[in-house]
């Protein structure tokens, strides 16, 4: 049996480095923008503007939507295989994983929206 080497430690290490040391400087306390600015040299202030925020927001929305669909697809595939193995659904049709994918996405949407609707309104 051959041993396989996973790339996970390298990926986790580089991600920890990227999150822990942005711009080559160690991360300090984040008590607010005033505290962050007093340790920042005058020439290195953040001037990215609103366009960068919009791009970052759309990037996060796309990434999280992609993760939701991929995770739900995995739930549909493995759920169908599980139901077939257990004997609950001995001969599932070819569209069964897609149906379970839709059920998983609907359940995730329900669990995401309900707490947001019960949230207190501000101001």
Q: Quick gist of this model?
A:
By secondary structure, this protein is an all-alpha fold.
Key traits:
single chain; 4 helices; mainly alpha; 123 residues
Explain what the structure shows:
This protein is mainly alpha-helical and 123 residues long. It contains four helices and no strands. It has helices at residues 8-20, 33-38, 49-86, 96-117. Helix 3 packs across helix 4 (96-117).
From the spread of the alpha carbons, the general shape counts as: elongated
Strand tally, please?
0
Helical proportion?
55-70%
**Mean pLDDT level:** 76
- Strand-residue fraction? under 5%
How far apart lie the N and C ends?
Answer: 64 Å
Instruction: Note the main sheet.
Output: none
Order of helices and strands: HHHH
Q: Count of DSSP helices?
A: 4
* Class derived from helix and strand content: mainly alpha
Poorly predicted regions: none
The rounded Rg comes to: 22 Å
List the helices and strands and how they pair.
Blueprint: H1 8-20, H2 33-38, H3 49-86, H4 96-117
Helix pairs in contact: 3-4
């Amino acid at each position: 049996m051959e041993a396989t080497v996973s790339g996970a430690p390298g990926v986790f290490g580089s991600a920890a480095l990227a999150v822990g040391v942005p711009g080559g400087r160690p991360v300090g306390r984040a008590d607010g923008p005033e505290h962050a600015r007093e340790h920042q040299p005058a020439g290195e202030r953040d001037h990215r503007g609103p366009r960068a925020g919009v791009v970052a927001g759309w990037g996060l929305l796309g990434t999280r939507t992609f993760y939701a669909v991929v995770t739900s697809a995995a739930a549909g595939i493995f759920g169908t295989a599980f139901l077939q193995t257990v004997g609950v659904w001995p001969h599932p049709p070819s569209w069964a994983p897609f149906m379970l994918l839709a059920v998983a996405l609907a359940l995730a949407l329900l669990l995401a929206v309900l707490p947001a609707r019960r949230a207190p309104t501000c101001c």
